[in-house]
């Protein structure tokens, strides 16, 4: 396994690969790796000649300084986890200074409005930070294929827009959500949940499953009201939003159309830890 902590060293190494005209798979992460991340790496391994995994906690996408400060950083353990599935992966774990060169700011992006929905409304500046780091990483790695989880479905759509609008030469591949046995979507933030909280957090996925079932016969508004009321009963959990939205535009579904694909999206706080999840309703 090759581990690089500086972009200049990584690009010097990648130069020998770019010339070979091989497929390079790229999995960008913020570390604290779990089975969800590893499922993306496994897909990349199956589809590419070379594989790059980045581990970088990107400061510009955090709108809450406490969240950034408390974000788990476990580089050595992460490297060992990657090694269990891949002995020749290229790991890129740069410093903030190496990436931002003293100017830790976001660029401003226009994603045709999808940045103003859900996560965009509740995390001001988040998608500018995501666009900034993803574009920088794509320019450094120059991957053929890049893998993103549907766990962050809005982010996946944002990255597809970023690529289309900037005419970037990379295929964006969405990967299914990996879950704990109780249905909780795997997330690096789950590390901060107590055992009791983790247990209770299964209500998030259960609500999504019931929402999916109800959406067959009820309106989006009725389903949303049902979810809001049922979650209100749980005092340990605060609902930030529940939305049923068009999968492409991410606009709230007012009236169902047979020709559109819909998804339910949820964000909750459990003990001040923010968790998000989503499910396809079609
Ligand atoms: P993160 O380290 O949280 O920035 O995530 C890195 C990548 O892994 C993103 O594309 C996420 O959507 C993806 N990811 C995170 N959790 C999961 C999961 N439970 N299942 C599938 N993909 C995930």
In short:
Strands 1-4-3-2-5-6 form a 6-stranded parallel β-sheet, sandwiched between helices. By secondary structure, the protein is an alpha/beta fold. The protein has helices at 7-18, 35-47, 65-70, 75-85, 96-100, 118-122, 126-141, 153-165, 195-200, 202-215, 220-232; strands spanning 2-4, 24-29, 50-55, 90-92, 145-149, 171-175, 237-246, 262-270, 273-280.
Mean pLDDT: 97
Number of helical regions: 11
Low-pLDDT regions: none
Strand content: 15-25%
Kindly state the number of beta strands: 9
Report Rg: 19 Å
Gross morphology: globular
Distinct bound molecules: adenosine monophosphate
| First-residue to last-residue Cα separation | 41 Å
| Oligomeric state of shown chains | single chain
What spatial order of strands do you see in the largest sheet?
A: 1-4-3-2-5-6
Name the helicity range: 40-55%
The helix/strand series, from N terminus to C terminus, equals: EHEHEHHEHHHEHEHHHEEE
Biggest pleated-sheet summary: 6 strands, parallel
Which structural class fits the helix and strand makeup?
alpha/beta
Please, could you describe this protein's structure?
The protein has 282 residues and is of the alpha/beta class. The protein is globular, with a radius of gyration of 19 Å. The chain is built from 11 helices and 9 strands. It starts with a strand and ends with a strand. The strands form 2 sheets. The protein has a 6-stranded parallel sheet with strand order 1-4-3-2-5-6, sandwiched between helices. The protein is 40% helix and 20% strand. It has helices spanning 7-18, 35-47, 65-70, 75-85, 96-100, 118-122, 126-141, 153-165, 195-200, 202-215, 220-232; strands at 2-4, 24-29, 50-55, 90-92, 145-149, 171-175, 237-246, 262-270, 273-280. α7 (126-141) packs across α8. The structure holds adenosine monophosphate.
């Amino acid at each position: 396994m090759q581990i690089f902590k500086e972009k200049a060293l990584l690009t010097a190494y990648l130069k020998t690969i770019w010339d070979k005209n091989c497929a390079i798979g790229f999995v960008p992460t913020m570390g604290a790796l779990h089975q969800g991340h590893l499922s993306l790496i496994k897909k990349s391994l199956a589809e590419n000649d070379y594989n790059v995994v980045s581990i970088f906690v990107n400061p510009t996408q955090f709108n809450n300084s406490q969240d950034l400060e408390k974000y788990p950083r476990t580089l050595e353990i992460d490297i060992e986890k990657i090694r269990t599935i891949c002995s020749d992966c290229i790991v890129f774990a740069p410093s903030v200074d190496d990436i931002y060169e003293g100017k830790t700011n976001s660029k401003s992006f226009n994603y045709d409005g999808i940045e103003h929905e859900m996560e965009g409304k509740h995390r001001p500046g988040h998608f500018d930070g995501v666009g900034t780091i993803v574009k920088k990483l794509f320019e450094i790695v120059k991957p053929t294929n890049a893998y993103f989880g549907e766990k962050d479905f809005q982010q996946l759509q944002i990255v597809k827009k970023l690529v289309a609008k900037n005419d970037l030469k990379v295929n964006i591949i969405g990967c299914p959500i990996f879950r704990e046995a109780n249905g909780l979507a795997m997330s690096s933030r789950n590390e901060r949940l107590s055992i009791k909280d983790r247990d209770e957090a299964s209500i998030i996925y259960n609500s999504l499953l019931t929402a999916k079932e109800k959406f067959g016969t009820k309106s989006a508004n009725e389903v949303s009201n049902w979810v809001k009321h049922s979650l209100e009963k749980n005092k340990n959990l605060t609902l930030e939003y529940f939305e049923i939205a068009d999968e492409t535009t991410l606009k709230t579904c007012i009236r169902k159309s047979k020709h559109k694909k819909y998804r339910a999206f949820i964000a909750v706080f459990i003990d001040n830890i923010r968790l998000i999840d989503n499910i396809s309703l079609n």
